[in-house]
Amino acid sequence: MTLVRSVLKVLAATITVATAVQAQYNPIQFKEYDLANGLHVILHQDLSAPVVATVLHYKVGSRDEDPRRTGFAHFFEHLMFEATDNITRATIDKMINGAGGQLNAFTSTDQTVYHFVVPSNQVRLALWIEAQRMRKLHVDAIGVETQRGVVKEERRNRYENAPYGSRLEKTMKNMFAGTPYEWTPIGSAQHIDSAAIPEFKAFYDTFYQPNNAVLVVSGDFDEKVVRETIDAYFGGYTRAPEPPRPAFAGLQPMTQEVRETINDTKAQLPLLQIAYRGVGMLDDDAPAATLLTRILSSGESSRLQKSLVDSERVAVQAASFMMANEYGGTMFVLGVASPGKGVDAIEASINRELRRVIDEGVSQAELTKAKNIFETQFVNGRMGVYEKALGLANAYRFYGDTKAINAELDKYLKVTADDIRRVAKRIFDTNGRVVLTYLPSKG
């Protein structure tokens, strides 16, 4: 049991199970405007609890990096918690925690996002810190050297010393070769090691500008006070030149299979992962592709669970999930072998299940269940002020229309069984895929 649990923990981030229930979802009301310097501001009042969330979404991710200097966007996710002109280094978390709040940040291929959740009477503190970090960050030797060590340790823990830790990097390198999605946000430790202070400063001055950001305030606040605070703290910054953007002139489809076997000293059981070129978040087929992953692997009655785990017993865990970027995506299907079993049987079973969906489609009952699971997750994910703030920022940034947040759920509920079958054929009916096999090794 201990062995199985350890494997499940590795894959937990990619597998979600929800109870199918119907829930009411009320449209999110908001106001938005632009400062003279280009900062886009979105305000959403929610008086249900005396808390406020701020989200500052910067339009910069790993795709914006120089291929010879990967990891910069993720590095700044950490560096932004260092010193500014008026903030002593390593005190931002103390100020927010001392005020009864929470803070965090994340980086992806397409964005870097910072957020605070604070009591209502501390909203000005959160806005002040974000304004300080936007243009008054100290990109100096102390902060840079501190965060070099932090980022390298994170890379060791998440990639180099974790079972199956290289699977995302290997997949992206082959799936998106020659594009800005070829590398992952963690980047190369060697690139971060060799970068000089002026390079970090140039990255900061290029991307951490008001006209490259979206600021959302969500929760219980006085609109007049918040507007005045935003103008006072952010309004004095000048508009910068628009940052350069990588070219995505259409991603070429994969036409050949790539296979690799990795002897993994950290793995306890064999793992097979098959990755296909999926769809991007802006693609009209994104809702159907998302529901397809639910049909394949969400819940005890899902297809991969019933075939690989329950019936054939070739795997202790099977999963399907999609990683959607702005300009493309990846669909993953994987299985962790049962003790004493190999990966050949897993691959054969996965291939059969994918072919069944392509040839026969899915039942209305399966689609209804998938919609119920998604609706529950969606509504629960819009309950908190932070979740709503993040959703508003994403709607404006990626869809160019903040109102898109209120149309998102309907797109999923309108998906038909024919859509699922068509998208399955689009994604899975191809020789172009990346197949990684991880075998336990004693080194």
The low-confidence parts are 1-23
Number of domains: 2
Please count the helical segments.
16
Supply the helix-strand structural class: alpha+beta
From the alpha carbons, calculate the radius of gyration and give it in angstroms.
23 Å
As laid out across the biggest beta sheet, the strand order is: 1-2-6-3-5-4
Quaternary arrangement of the chains shown?
single chain
**What is the CATH topology descriptor of the largest domain?**
Cytochrome Bc1 Complex, Chain A, domain 1
Under CATH, the homologous superfamily of the largest domain reads Metalloenzyme, LuxS/M16 peptidase-like
CATH first level of the largest domain = Alpha Beta
Distance between the termini: 25 Å
Q: What helical percentage do the residues reach?
A: 40-55%
Tell the overall outline: globular
Order of helices and strands: HEEEHHEEHHHHHEHEEHHEEHHHHHE
| Strand percent estimate | 15-25%
Explained architecture:
By secondary structure, the chain is α+β, with helices and mostly antiparallel strands. It is built from 16 helices and eleven strands. It folds into two domains: 31-234, Metalloenzyme, LuxS/M16 peptidase-like (Cytochrome Bc1 Complex, Chain A, domain 1); 250-440, Metalloenzyme, LuxS/M16 peptidase-like (Cytochrome Bc1 Complex, Chain A, domain 1), CATH 3.30.830.10. The chain has helices at 2-11, 72-79, 92-98, 123-135, 141-160, 167-175, 189-194, 197-207, 223-234, 286-297, 303-311, 344-360, 364-380, 385-399, 408-413, 417-428, and strands spanning 31-34, 40-45, 51-58, 102-107, 112-119, 213-219, 258-264, 271-277, 315-324, 329-337, 433-440.
